Amino acid sequence: MITTRELTDHIKKHAVPFNKTADLQPLIQKAGQAKYALLGESSHGTREFYTIRADITKQLIQEHQFSFIAVEGDWPACYEVNRYIKGRAPEYSSAEDVLKKSFYRWPSWMWANREMVDLIQWLHAYNQQQTDRKIGFYGIDVYSLWESMEAIVDYLKKIKSPDLDKALQAIECFEPYHRKPENYGISAAFYGEDCMSEVMELLSTIKENKKMYDQDPEAVLNMNINAIAAMNAEHYYHTMVTNDNESWNIRDRHMVEALQHISEFHGSSAKGIIWEHNTHIGDARATDMAKEGMVNVGQLTRESFGANHVYAVGFGTYEGTVIAGTEWGSPAEIMTVPQGVTGSWEEALHQAGAYNQFLLFTDDNKDLFSNVIGHRAIGVVYHPEFEHHGNYVPSRLSQRYDAFIHIDKTTALSPL
Length: 416
Known about the structure:
Elements: H1 4-14, E1 16-17, H2 25-32, E2 36-39, H3 47-64, E3 68-71, H4 75-85, H5 95-102, H6 114-128, E4 136-139, H7 145-158, H8 164-174, H9 181-191, H10 196-208, H11 217-240, H12 244-266, E5 272-275, H13 278-281, H14 297-305, E6 310-324, E7 333-337, H15 345-352, E8 357-360, E9 372-376, E10 392-396, H16 397-400, E11 403-410
Parallel strand pairs: 2-5, 2-6, 3-4, 3-5, 6-11
Antiparallel strand pairs: 1-8, 6-7, 8-11, 9-10
């Protein structure tokens, strides 16, 4: 067992200070060799996590031929951004316009923020210079049950598909719950009143008739992912009221399933950049999640695609400010992020040098950073005054990630 003093010394020896993106080149080169670069964050409301990930993303696209970005967002909303950056959405006047109009469901600040405007506008300009290798932007989360069902109906109406009746039957089944997932979950879990068969039948019909939808390959991808999102969302909401851990697993398995479909669409040589919270991209087996029978994207991608094809970068901070809500659906607030608690990874990194720094974990140094130590995780709901009771995930940092970026003092996002 490595002592706190020894850990601080190891960080001093192996961590590299940085002031600008160019200083991160050793990390970017490593990530660029992978098929999937997983870029994390320890909160959904920190400016520096977004801006640094955006800078890394631009480098991976320009220098390492990455094909798409997949984020912890809803497929329908992100698909509007995808249309915009590919020049297929004349109804949006700017990056700010598409973000404002597409991300309206709480917590909208995760993607409708000033920091994202720059990246989306950059992607739009970059794609204008491309002929056949346009970068895609997709959401791989599972919450878009109603929005995905509506997108399927709209598309089937547009092409006058005979599958429209099945889609209308499926969406009609969900109407009594008035877009309130908790109502549907209670009805499905406790009263046996669910819409599983309707959604399954729709998905089966779409698969059987897939040859009908060959005219526009990306429109087909859009419909297929929406159908999968609807099916997995039904399963998620059905499960969440009785088994929180299993609903988590459904969500992260859906993310990897969506990622596989996106990769297939972009071709065998496609490379993807994934933006998600550390709790998704950091391998669950290196945390206490494993004891609870929980899996995540970091674990599943390493298992499915091979650890050598996945490069996970965790992000953390010692102190600062963050955007979050006091409860689900409450207004976004700027909150103070207190200094990392004693004995945490955050405190160790700060003690080793109160500046921005990054660690690359290698076969030679992994053992030095394999202590089980608390690592901060802030969600969209946050209570700074109580964070020491539940915001620290016991983690073996060098097994959870391939690299780690520490920003000593951070600031809150700027919602649109």
